[in-house]
């Protein structure tokens, strides 16, 4: 297993790993301070495509995180992937206004008529008209891409239906599954990160709270995996799962202490 001291870039899941709801989790600031002191980098990596990277960065600032904040969403990864693979596209989007803004940032155009592709994200502004129109277009055999596969999104009130639940609904109606699902655990997400940062995979670690997205993503991508127990996964879940992380910590503050110990601080 790679040593933590060899890692240059830590990819951090957000909700359940660094914060929960609108509150930072224990040790979050200590972890960032440790990385900055050691000259290491971090990037927030989230499957949640309902917001754009700028909105997430602003949320983190309001919770007390200062300095440079870099956020990479499954929306960003999908926008880059589509542009590299197909060029700029006319997209019928099942997604939020902020996700539309993300795609436009990469040169794509959001349209209601004559699209080249249907893209599905975590749409917290969803309505029947969008779903119906998406299904009509998908029956015409248009390219179909989802930003990520998460079935539920965590909240303080409990799990809420996420993009994976919409994928299941659309499959029931049309018989179609996405041609590509870009977000974690698909290694495509890491390829987009490496293109953006220039850091090689052996120097990257993934820190997250979900076995089937964060840890499975790291496993498929060939990077170091670190599970925190502040979010979805419990010790019982871990014992019963075939997906095993390289490192398990109670919270991200405990990971900061491991880094300090390895560097002799």
Automatic annotation (TrEMBL):
Q: Which residues bind Mg(2+)?
A: 13, 15, 209
Mitochondrion keyword on record: no
Q: How is the cofactor bound?
A: Divalent metal ions. Mg(2+) is the most effective.
Pfam families per the record?
A: Hydrolase_6, Hydrolase_like
> Which controlled-vocabulary keywords does the entry list?
Hydrolase, Magnesium, Metal-binding
Q: Does the keyword Magnesium apply?
A: yes
Superkingdom classification of source = Bacteria
Q: Which family does it belong to?
A: Belongs to the HAD-like hydrolase superfamily.
Which NCBIfam families does UniProt cross-reference here? HAD-SF-IIA
Identification of the protein by name: HAD-superfamily hydrolase, subfamily IIA
Which lineage? Bacteria, Thermotogati, Thermotogota, Thermotogae, Thermotogales
